[in-house]
Amino acid sequence: MKEKILSVGIDIGTSTTQLVFSKITIENTVSSFSVPRIQIVEKEIVYRSNIYFTPLSNQTTIDGAKVREIIESEYKRAGIKPEEVKTGAVIITGETARKQNANEVLDTLSGLAGDFVVATAGPDLESIIAGRGAGADKISDDEIAYVVNIDIGGGTSNLALFHNGEVKDTGCLDVGGRLIKIDPDTKKIYYIFPKIKKLAESIGVNIEVGDIAEIDKIRKIAKAMTDLLEESVCIKERTAMYHEIITNNNAKGKGIKDGYKIDYITFSGGVADYVYNEDYNDPFKYGDMGVVLGEEIRKSNLLKKLKLREAVETIRATVVGAGSHTTDISGSTITYTKDVFPVKNIPILKISKSDEEKGLDAVENAIKEQLSWFDLENEKQQVTVALTGEKNPSYAYIQNLSKAIINGMTEVLNRDYPVFVIVENDMAKVLGQTMHRDLNHSKDVVCIDNIKVENGDYIDIGKPLVNGKVVPVVIKTLVFNS
Question: Domain of life, per the record (predicted)?
Fold first, then answer.
């Protein structure tokens, strides 16, 4: 049976804020005798907002009241009332995710959708969201190829590498269109990001706040930025400056690993429009260096050594909403050592089938690596580890799986979070009990089964029902325009 819902996607980024309303059709695509899998079978964008510069009250604070004014005004323009919106997604990304009051801004938006997915995305999760929004994951699946998307915004360039539809690696560089800001009227430079000042000095360009912007100097800096992007996608030998320009390079920041043989490249973010379109007549059109950076990328080896593919979206490469559904969990095999419910908006870390097939060492390593995708300012966020599991597991397999999950989650086990695990096959009771024992009963464990989820999903788990035998779960899937 199909159900149509109205959903909203709200994106608050370093430079821009925007929203999209969508009509989403969801349907259970498997028989009633199988694990329910509600999929989004149709999506139609019914309204796109204007794109606004993200309002800041100063360099470190988002103006939450003005953000809400923007969102409310766009609801009115769309002719949509908040109570008509059943679900949605609010994503705060880029520099704005690091602002002091990002969570306060999320609070100011409460009441504008029935049930928001809320994500404050650090560099890795932002990379994945942008890459999926651009359609790079689908290209990699269709072509059975390595595809990298570079999302070039105002403050950062976020890289996501996909293969066969799955995320393989992520990275983030401090390369963006608004790292030098220029007064559109006077052409005076009024802001230079410190790393870009250092980059300019490394190539012999002297540039200061208060200078009149000279196109030749800006172009040389844009060319140096582009060289670093070439290094980031493994088509040029990496330099000391590349490691310097990595976002949070002194605090576990990273680029994608060296050595990949990448086939295709896509671009998203505001600068992408000037990679795909050759309109360079007004280089300082937006009061920054974004147009010039796009032009330099267009001329670079990024487009000569890699095959350029059109992105589904560029500046709008973000979520268009969220589809949600509720399902009851089979009561016979769930474990929860303490009633910690309800919990909301926990992101899913899904172990790929290929990693499960490689063995439990690969599962452990995948958890360790993918946990970093959900970091925010080097803080570990709560996640739910999800995997398929074996249909008829031996007790030895359960014991080894417990150890693999615990070892993989070492970095988050010292946080005051319960441990959440979802397995698709019928094994949650014994797995949860084994994990609780292996953790010396020091952590609360919630382990549920007969639920199918994917990376990019978020879950809510409600209070136990039927004398504690079942828990209601809402699965919310981010929706992209690809």
Answer: Bacteria
Vertex 178 angle, CA 247 and 54, to 5°: 95
Chain-wide mean pLDDT for the chain? 85
* Ramachandran area for residue 359 (φ above 0: left; ψ -120 to 50: alpha; else beta): left
Q: Say which CATH number the domain at 68 has.
A: 3.30.420.40
- The pLDDT confidence band at residue 33, using thresholds 50, 70 and 90, is low
**Residue with token string 């909203």:** 8
Query: Which CATH number do you get for residue 210?
Result: 3.30.420
Q: Domain tally for the chain?
A: 3
- What is the span of the domain harbouring residue 225? 136-308
Both 54 and 162 in a single domain?
Answer: no
Q: Is residue 476 in some structural domain?
A: no
Strand 445-449 vs strand 419-423: parallel, antiparallel, or unpaired? parallel
* Nearest in space to 378 (alpha carbons), one of 233, 253, 240: 253
pLDDT digits (tens, 9 = 90+) for 160-190: 999 999 889 999 999 999 999 999 999 999 9
DSSP 8-class letter at 245 = H
The arithmetic mean of pLDDT across residues 183-203, rounded, is: 95
